[in-house]
Amino acid sequence: MDAVGGTGRPGVMGGLGAVRGRVLVVATVFRRELATVLRTPGYGALAVGLLAVLGGVVAVGGGAATGFVPTVVDLLLVTEVVVPLVAFVIGYRALLTDAETGELAVIRTYPVSVAGYVVGIVLARGLAFLAIVVVPYATIGVAVWATAAPDTTIFATHSGIDSPLLYLRFLGLLVPFGAAYLSLATAVSAVASSRRGAVAVGVLVLVVAVLGGDLAILRSLATGTAPSTVPGLLPLTPNGAFRGLVFEGVVGVAFAPEGGFVDVGRAVGSLLVWTLGGVAVSSATLAYGDRLEVLLEGARARTAE
Amino acid sequence: MAILDPFGDRFGRVLAAVAVLVVVAGIATAGAFAADPSVATPDPVAYDDTVELGLSSETDELMAGSARVPRVQVFYSQLQYVVGYNGIESFVASVDDGRTERQFGYPLVVHVETFDGGNPGVTEDGLLEAERSTDWVPADEAAYVVGSTARSPAGETVVPFSERTNAETFAAEHGGHVRDWTAARNRSFDVDSAATVRSMAPARWAAADRRVADAEASAAERAGEVVVVGRDAPTIDATVAAAPPNGTVVVPSGTYEETVTVNESVTIAGDDARVRGDGNGSVVTVRAPNVTVSGLTVDGVGNETRDPEAARESAGGDAEEGWDTNVQLGYGHGDAGIRAIGAPGLLVDDVTVETNASGVLLREGSDAVIRDLRVDGSDDWRDGFMGVIGMESRVTITEGRFEGGRDGVYLHRADGSTIRNSTFVGNRYGTHLMYTGDALIADNRFRDAEFGGITVMTRPSGNAIVGNDVRDSSAGIQASGTRSYVGYNTLADNRLGFSTSSRGSLYEHNVAVDNEVGAHATTVVPSSRVVANDFVGNDRHAKAGAGALRIWADGDRGNHWEGADVGLHEPGERAYRPTAPVDAVLHHETAAAVVRESPGAVLLDRLHGTVPGARSGSIVDPSPAPEPYAPDRVAAAREPDPSPVHPEWRVESGLAGDDSTTASTDTMNTHDLNATDGTNVRNGMEARRPTERPRTSAEPEDRR
């Protein structure tokens, strides 16, 4: 941790120096975490595997043969499952490993704040996520751009509503969607006390987040909630928000230009809140987890008596 | 690893580059959200390059003179092809039907043809005419004259102008009001559809009944003085020449070696008599109205199937016109057992012709009723010609039998003809229509046709093909054109059951059993309705050519596909895609059902049918019927001959004015280039020609 040592004593510096110091802390943690990611060959395999899955879906779905919107339609459902999954794979051990090995305790002896540490980790993992997820999706987009063509050119053809811009929008929406799950995964890695526990909690969170929100909406509609509340309720889960935004900005453009699939502000806000919420939970757990454990231990001891 | 070493010297620069990349991507993405792709305004294209829907631009009325139908070209949000409409009414009617939006998305841009500088007016027949159209303008920038005296062949028409003042001038001269696009767009128009054709089929049947009865009655009425061959004159020809007007020439049993020319209205009533020509030219030639020929057997017909001079005469000039002339001059001037030229009111009753050329040849308005005609043609179709050939003559054929030869019945510009209750065996085509619309082909039986049972070429409209039974042939029914009604046919053991080549048409209640391919979707842009058909035991139930996804159903009513309900779902609950590899084999591969239940297949199933206009080359039936619509006909189709299946289509509710599947969308049509061979791919000049056209002048129609 020589690099961390080089930051001097941020505690005694003030004003701009303090900010710079904190940025340096984040940068150092980021750099270290990135090294971890780069030394994990499995992530490369993950990206290749994802590309294969996506390629398979569009090849069998056939949408890619004609344009971007059908491609997005083919990919949407798969994306809603695969992207959270990949985010969890990238994030579920992010904070756990340092805690398990005791490295976190060592790092904490340096002037590194918990928030700075978490942000650095999340940024590095986020960059990894971009490389692992967005690059394969972008590759698919490029392939569609290069190959999609009408069946026959004996008639005049046009692209209709279809446009690479729509696919770019889709890629753009993948980022906050993935970020929300990555942040959730990080929170799981902070809360869990063992790798096995992290997997278990991670799968639970994944299932609840991917399916639970929509099931809840279905349930509430069945019990008499007004359908007009759907655009507002839908974005409460990351999946709902993402799907709503894809309909609003990408797929729906082809059949309902006026939109109205989701409350856009709320959906964007929701994704943001999930992301920040995950970071906050991670930080809070690392900062106060020990004290909580003491409290819990005490409570358990009392009930055991 | 050097460049990616996080602790290396150059890592800072790499990181900076990545940061710049991310920022650029972020800005691009923000730009993608800021831009609105739905406001793209593609420029108009050449109308000939559009996929034409609606009224055909090639009706005789339009081809003949300066009459025009204002054309529209539309860029739909999901459809990759530019769609052309003849008549703003066609466009409005098709958009008013929700199916269009479901299939193609919403119109992004609409361009209309304007007539400002084309000196627009109205012909004597009330059709809109103009020397030319001036410009394509966006529809919302044009001014429209509605309710003027100008009409299109289909009815009311709206005339667009790019300048409002020009519209006002036109309205002042020809009546009507000037409206903007919104107002013109919101009018409702009465446009004929394939459902209209369906509702008219029983009436055409009744009209044929009437024509037969009238011909009989008028023959009986005319039966004047009786002269007998052998008693009053030695030969039939001499007896006919000597017979008084409206006389009856009785031909006693026996063989008469001669040729006969009929120049006045007489009845030739044979009694098991045989007329044998000399092997040159036609045997009986009729050149007078109201002639009856009955009770004869004719042979000794010449071998000239068509006039070899015709090809030469027709050379030069417009290719299509030349071809048409070639056919009319060539086909119309071959040898035949009975040849009628300008002879309306002809009744051919109980006649047999043994020929290596044609059986009965009718041309120049020889409207005829042909009953109980039997034509024995050549064994190989290349050696013979048509059983009945009708040119510019309305033909009513009933209870005929046509064996061998080229085409059983060949009609060329014979609008309103009826062919019914007849049997066709071993022809090239059983019934072959060219430029012939408003015809009824009903309750016939076709067997072993080399090329096809029923084929309709060129672009006629309004044909009804009903209740036929085609088996063991290359193809059952291949009808091109527009607004056709193809219903209640039974197609078994053919290579192809039927093709959906006719645009804006209705294909319903057909039964396709044990064919190699049940049905072939050919048009690039789907515009027809295919519903309530039964597909059983075909190697492949359906195939699709190039073009947008076809949805074969009408609302929640689909077709019956054997195998569609295999698996773990309620019958009819799951969409069936006959063109998908797994669905296609469900009815003969048990294991396919297991593949179909995989999450991947289920997922893809769910996705198909979304943005259909942007997908291609396939067919989906969102609500397949669990049970056959006509189980009795499916069973009967598998029984051995001779048991032609003729459903009671005239009494079944679907045709008795019930409008359950009527549709204003039936006004939508597509180009069906090359329709009858089912490929739609045109190359260069072939584009707008009729399907059957000469490659060499010697053999003008052997395209296959």
TrEMBL record, chain B:
Biased composition (Low complexity): 658-672
Lineage: superkingdom: Archaea
InterPro entries in UniProt: N2O_reductase_NosL (IPR008719), NosD_dom (IPR007742), PbH1 (IPR006626), Pectin_lyas_fold (IPR012334), Pectin_lyase_fold/virulence (IPR011050), SCF-Subunits/Alg-Epimerases (IPR051550)
Region annotation (Disordered) ranges: 297-322, 614-704
Keyword rRNA processing: no
Record's keyword terms, sorted: Repeat
Ranges of biased composition (kind: Basic and acidic residues): 635-651, 685-704
Sequence ranges assigned to domain Periplasmic copper-binding protein NosD beta helix in this UniProt record: 393-563
Annotated protein name in UniProt: NosD domain-containing protein
